[in-house]
Amino acid sequence: MKILDIETVPQDGIMKTWYRDWAKKKFPEMTEEELEHQAGLYPEFGMICAIGISESCGKPTSCTARNFSEERSMLIELREILGETEELVGHNLKGFDLPFLAKRYLYHDLAVPKTLRVAGKKPWDIPHVDTMELMRFGGGMSMSLRSACFLLGLGDPKFSFDGSEVWDLFKKGEMGLIASYVEGDCSYTDKLYKKLMNLAI
After folding, report:
1. Could you give the CA distance from residue 157 to residue 188 in angstroms, rounded to a whole number?
2. Residue 3 and residue 60 in contact, taking contact as beta carbons nearer than 8 Å
3. Dist CA 184 CA 150 (whole Å)
4. Could you report the per-residue pLDDT of 61-108, keeping only the tens digit for each?
5. Sheet strands side by side (includes 2-10)
6. Is 102 in contact with 142 (CB distance < 8 Å)?
7. Phi, psi angles (nearest 5°) of residue 149
8. CB 42 within 8 A of CB 56
9. Of 84, 88, 118, 173, which is most buried by a Cβ count within 10 Å?
């Protein structure tokens, strides 16, 4: 079992493409800067700038990417790290990280790692654990990693900065800070997962 988390940013120059018109129609209340920031949430308009991974109870490691070429190399490295891993744990893993990763592999014309090939599978056939899903307790209300950790007294994973600031750090070339941030999210996701398992959720 491995803990996984990714950080994403908008693709360079995305506002010079048709994305701008599409986004303005979809989010008419947003400013140009907010629209550009929003692009980082879509695998066709964004890219992965950092991946954090760890064994449960282990020290997280990470790799970062400043451009498409480095993103491609990072994805190849991740595929090797995952190997035959059957179970991943993450917060909003199924709703965001897994589909974003799989589509970025497709973008780079790379084979999607076996453990990420969940398309078409029934929910009970997917071995991965999504702590956001667990925190819903069968309801429809999502809870952020920060809120879940606050509820369970696990500390604040966003004590230095939060995900909304990753893009600004990326533009400043602060890849070390982004690496520390994604590793921190892995650590707190691991804490959350173990707490939930200890409480027999």
Report:
1. 6
2. yes
3. 15
4. 899 999 999 999 999 999 999 887 789 999 999 999 999 999 999 999
5. 61-64, 46-55, 2-10, 88-90, 129-130
6. no
7. -65, -35
8. no
9. 88
